[in-house]
Amino acid sequence: MIALTGAGMSAESGVPTFRGLDGLWRNYNPQELATPEAFAANPTLVWEWYDWRRGLIAQAQPNAGHFALAQLEEKGPFVTVVTQNVDGLHQRGGSSHVIELHGSIWKLRCMGCQRLHSDLRAHLRTLPPLCEECGQMLRPGVVWFGENLPPMAWEASVEAVSSTDVLLVIGTSGQVYPAAQLVPIAKEAGAKVILVNLEEIELGGAADIVIQGASGEILPKLVQ
Ligand code: BJW
Ligand code: ZN
What we know:
Blueprint (H helix, E strand, L loop, with lengths): L1 E4 L2 H4 L18 H4 L2 H6 L1 H17 L4 H12 L4 E4 L5 H5 L4 E3 L2 E8 L5 E3 L19 E5 L8 H12 L3 E5 L11 H7 L3 E6 L11 E4 L2 H9 L1
Parallel strand pairs: 1-2, 1-7, 2-3, 7-8, 8-9
Antiparallel strand pairs: 4-5, 4-6
Helix pairs in contact: 5-9, 7-8
The protein binds ligand BJW and zinc ion.
């Protein structure tokens, strides 16, 4: 079984989503901040945004939905979580097979030597942070608009959804590609698609079952 998750999964943990009613982030448009162009133009502004979010996520706890997916692993089926989220809450909730399609807010990459750094502190000491190895600027280890997804994560996800019997699509608006493409890929390979979303969303008519509600309430029941 594969769970493809998005920002709605962490909404009940208090992590804001991108789109929709509560999704407006500090009067900034994420699509204007989550791009390499925005970072090149104003790295400090972009870093302030990410540092603010690190603080929010550090305070957040995995919710009943994260725990339910982790619990599912113990029940029998092999569960892979393919997540668009960068918050690490699936791992903290106990899921052991997590593919991070859009990277992680806890990772930083050097613009100079390309080294990957890991930093779990809620807030960084200096913005923008600098590489301890080469002194160049570090960037958030996430995938911005116009950037390719990590090839291994993408390939593993395509492979996983191509051979699963069930794809659970949880808390994502399905508007961002190529992640959203995983749904028709699974469907064409014969998977049953189950949507769990607070709102009525469609995903190109791919859903076999639609469950409207909050993932933190629906998933524990579904697992039961
Ligand atoms: C609940 C709930 C509760 C709330 N319970 N549910 C093909 C077609 C069109 C466009 C493109 C295309 N291919 C590529 C593009 C361009 C672009 C794209 O998709 N644009 C669209 C927006 C139009 N894609 C890219 O650029 C991607 N790269 C790429 O394609 O590379 C090839 C390329 C190279 C060079 C040039 C061009 C192409 C990269 C995409 C990277 C996305 N990055 C972000 C930021 C990550 C870092 C960060 O966190 O800052 O990823 S954007 C943002 O959106 C973030 C999310 O992971 C992603 C998805 O959002 P998600 O998770 O769906 O959240 P929301 O807020 O949209 O929805 C929340 C849902 O939850 C709602 O439905 C609620 O109802 C629900 N909900 N509470 C259950 N309690
Ligand atoms: Zn470096």
